[in-house]
Input
Amino acid sequence: MKDENRATHESTEHRGIDKERRALIGAAAGVGAAMVAPGVVLHAVQAQADPRSEPVTSDVRWGLVIDTAKCADGCSACVDACNEENGLDLQTKPGRESEEKWDRQKAVWIRKVKLQDNQTGRITNLPMMCQHCEDPPCVDVCPTGASFKRADGIVMVDRHLCIGCRYCMMACPYKARSFIHEDLEGQLTSVPRGKGCVESCNLCAHRRDYGEDSTACADACAAEGHNAIVFGDLKDPNSIISQLLKELSTRQIREDLELNTGVRYAGV
Amino acid sequence: MAKATVRTILLVGLVWALLAQTVLAEEVRRYVVEGSKAAELDACVEPTERMRRMHFEFIKHQRIATVHQGIRGTKYSLAGCVDCHISYDEQRQPQPIDRPDQFCGACHAYAAVDLNCFDCHASVPNRSEDSPEAQAAHQALGLGPLGSLAQTHAGGGER
Output
């Protein structure tokens, strides 16, 4: 039997390490500030941490909590922000393709999903993306090792190893993955992308590596004033996301599959 | 007598070898393109000889470190090569680096190397010049931090 709340339980074991890390980070930040001493301006402008120079570790597990009660009908702020952040808006429809087919086929990392309870008529809106499973089926089926889970819990595709077989797309219970069917141009430096590979939400991995606080979707949702998406470290008992998980009654989608997802939903 | 002959032969050989080397050195084509940042600098992120022979090893190692371990801001980043070796035309338009008349493209065309990296990777820089990778490359050259203080965030910032 798997423990549904493994993430939260493990956090107690990791508390010691986490504290130590934080202390270290604090000290390092102090040094940085001292070295640029007269440059008060420099310090103020550089709000973000240094790019990562040590491999990611399992001291953290990144995840999302989504409060569906706050997710507004008709709002697509998270989807739009994700598209822009990850260059998905740079895809163009091939001339021969119908609008309808293109809508189904173009790569998306977040989908807005509307659920209706047929008995009560209650409608729930939610954003659906890669659920960053602890035991990801996409990783199990990948024949090349391209589909993998980073130590910090982010499930992603190493496009250098992906052969485009799309087993992972079939294995994913959340329909979270997309395949790039066409050659592309004008990609973003930070988000390379090309024909013949599978991709999906990577919790803004580049933002993680450059020490930013949040994801594009969570930022956009907050900017709209909805705050339905909260990003954070599931293993840090003091993180906002852990506090939320303690307060809210959250669920994993398809928890019967026992994948221990890193994305949790309240109000579903 | 015999000793003297040997000496002469050795000396002639030495002079010949030296001459041959100078000629060879002059024959080496240079690929750094006018109008790129690299054209104004003296050195690459490693000695030039080493770069010519090893650059793909460096990049591939970097690729694994970045994609699997999240390590950023290092001097062998592919985005970093593009930042420094990209050249601009009179309209200040960056010229795709894999084009057969540009830095990576020209030498690869000569060496008959066919890459697909730029099917996915941006072949022109589209982020700020003081990206962490550019900073790392500059520091590797002992040039100290790059001028501007403004930091754009690395992901999708400048488009």
Notes: Chain A has two domains: 2-43, 62-266.
